[in-house]
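INTERNAL TRANSFER SHEET
From: sequence group
To: structure group
Subject: Pyrimidine-nucleoside phosphorylase

Please process the attached sequence and return the structure record in the designated field. Keep the field labels unchanged so the import script can parse them.
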Amino acid sequence: MRMVDLIAKKRNGNVLSEEEIKFFIENYMAENIPDYQISALMMSIYFQGMNQEETAYLTKYMVESGEIIDLSAIKGHKVDKHSTGGVGDKTTFIVAPLVAAAGIPVAKMSGRGLGHTGGTIDKLESIPGFKVELTNEQFIYNVNKFKLSVVGQTGNLAPADKKLYALRDVTATVDSIPLIASSIMSKKIASGADSIVLDVKTGSGAFMKTLEDSKKLAREMVTIGKQLNRNTIAVISDMNQPLGYEIGNANEVKEAVKVLQGERIEDLRELAIELAAHMTILAGIYPDYNKATFELSRIIDEGKAFEAFKNFIKAQNGDISVIEDYDKLPTSSYHVEVTSTARGYIHQMDAETVGIAAMHLGAGRATKDDSINHGVGITLHKKIGDIVKENEVIATLHTDKQENHEITKLLRSAFTINEQPIKRNRMIYDVIK
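Return from structure group:
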């Protein structure tokens, strides 16, 4: 078998066999195939696409290129959640303890962030003392005892994906639904869960900007999961504005704690209960959606999810005093008010621009070597559909910089204000099963 023949075959729009996909993954990992040939193949896939079987085989052999986590020592049906990423997305800190409080084991491996704000692991490190690295024995013990543990992702999880992504990133082939779907699902399947719930974002702050593309990606990932024997569901959720009101690492932990304590931050609570409901149904805890959402709402309101969160933080050496009194979480030196330059209703809020403003404050990473400032970020005071007066405060920058003129200007540009009222965004657009 020759790599040049595989490139030509896909360039001409033909289907690669399982053997051919296995060949190029295994030989690329063994460094028998040069980057330029894999780049040519990725470009051929970008233009010609892949069918469902090809995408499933690509995912399968990326999974098999590295470690596959064995969670069999954990009692019960393990359900994982994955978000395709957005601005202010802190749902893991609500969903995971909520599902754990319902009796489902959550054994989660998460990564660090690159871009707008930190990843789940960066945000957890806002909590003094919190350990993101545990031995396998500690990880399994914590999940069996407390029903929840979140650790940093192992470096040997789907290594073929990391190599392929590095090439795609520099050859303009990232934006391909089969390649995106196989990249995400290879890591989720290698993580060892029995079932997977996907939160696929759509809108200005999402990777997929249109609802049509978001649904295509969701269908592709659900199909891959099912073909590789994982029950998989995808929820399409709104990212035309940040989720909740807080952007930034400690800020987002604080807002998640507020929801766990019963505060009605509606979009955040709605999405968290939606994702948790599908996780509990897949695990067989509740018989249907209505029962699941009713019981999960009760678990939050009775404080059981908050207790599960505190147990999880304490088990990983985190200082729970900052959870019980979130004003002790890291904060910035300056708090700068950003005011409106017009009156009317907020019609649009470019979530990506808000995220970039947070990154410039130090809440995210422009490159993988950048460090995170856990105390900086943005608090929004207005969302789409809200009325605003001229010179009214629409956001607050939490910053360690004395000069913030350019960031203030950038953040203001994210808001579009119009005199006519507008309906608020839907939070959930669809569920793909």
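Handover comment: The chain has 17 helices and 13 strands. The longest helix spans residues 211-227.
Transfer complete.
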